[in-house]
Design brief:
two-stranded antiparallel sheet, TIM Barrel, AKR5G, 10 helices, Aldo/ket_reductase_CS, Aldo/keto reductase, 39% helix, 15% strand, NADP, 274 residues
Length: 274
């Protein structure tokens, strides 16, 4: 992990960058400019979702960037209301059209919900078989969701995108995914800025001449977590990417992991039932 384009080989053999841009709740010109800035800096992974309402702008910025399609990794997600076999296939067509892409690199089930995700997964498997997506995965799945999904499917999710940061490291889930060759990806890896005043992180940041955010992101990489920090500020987008020129000691990695308090800032997947 020495460069912004360094990648993890997923369980189906394709490469996914360890680092990318998140676009949660960014819309219009704001998200278009953020994606353009990120691609100019060297980002090659962009994460969006149908529910974010910005797939069209993301796609337009990708098209205008001049970056070769085969060097990009684009993720989007099927939203809860579209879960089910036929509805997922239709939702995928809508997302593809908005993004202006012939294929999606990674297509995820956004939330497990109660009982539709198996039918949704069958739709993702079809899209994968047809070559419309290069990899399929899930988001916000707990261990019991993964076990239930894999009980009736021979396709192991390539990725599980979940809330993960130093205050919520999800060790049991991370270990389970590692055991089953499912790549963990962190949304809200910076805990939405709520760790800026942490003394341990400040001390480590000062040692390396880095920011607290950069230390957290580096901690994520060294724990083999794919990270997609969201920002719409050009300077912050650049700052977030400047994490490949230093390395935390193992003691420092362990110390940051020791901040874990089981503290969610997002919704508990087991309480989001639909």
């Amino acid at each position: 992990m020495k460069h912004i384009t360094d990648a993890k080989i997923l369980n189906n053999g394709i490469n996914m960058p360890w680092f990318g841009l998140g676009t949660f709740r960014a819309a219009g010109t704001e998200v278009a400019n953020a994606v353009s800035t990120a691609l100019e800096i060297g980002y090659r992974s962009i994460d969006t979702a149908a529910v974010y309402g910005n797939e069209e702008e993301v796609g337009q910025s990708i098209a205008a960037s001049g970056v070769a399609r085969d060097s990009l990794f684009v993720t989007t997600k099927v939203w809860n209301e579209d879960q089910g076999f036929d509805t997922t296939l239709r939702a995928f067509e809508t997302s593809s059209k908005k993004l202006g892409l012939d294929f999606i690199d990674l297509y995820l089930i956004h939330w497990p919900g109660k009982d539709k995700y198996k039918d949704t997964w069958r739709a993702l498997e079809r899209l994968y078989t047809e070559g419309r997506v290069r990899a399929i995965g899930v988001s916000n799945f707990q261990i019991h969701h993964l076990e239930e999904l894999m009980k009736d499917s021979s396709t192991v999710p390539a990725v599980n995108q979940v809330e993960l940061h130093p205050r919520f490291i999800q060790k049991e889930l991370h270990d389970y995914c590692t055991l089953h060759n499912i790549q963990i990806e962190a949304w809200a890896p910076l805990m939405k800025g709520r760790l800026q005043e942490n003394e341990l992180l400040i001390d480590i940041a000062q040692k390396y001449g880095k920011t607290v955010a950069q230390v957290i992101l580096r901690w994520g990489l060294q724990n083999e977590i794919v990270i997609i920090p969201k920002s719409v500020t050009a300077s912050r987008i650049k700052e977030n990417s400047e994490i490949f020129d230093f390395e935390l000691t193992q003691d420092e990695v362990n110390a940051v992991s020791g901040l874990d308090a089981g503290e969610r800032i997002g919704t508990d997947p087991d309480k989001l039932i639909f």
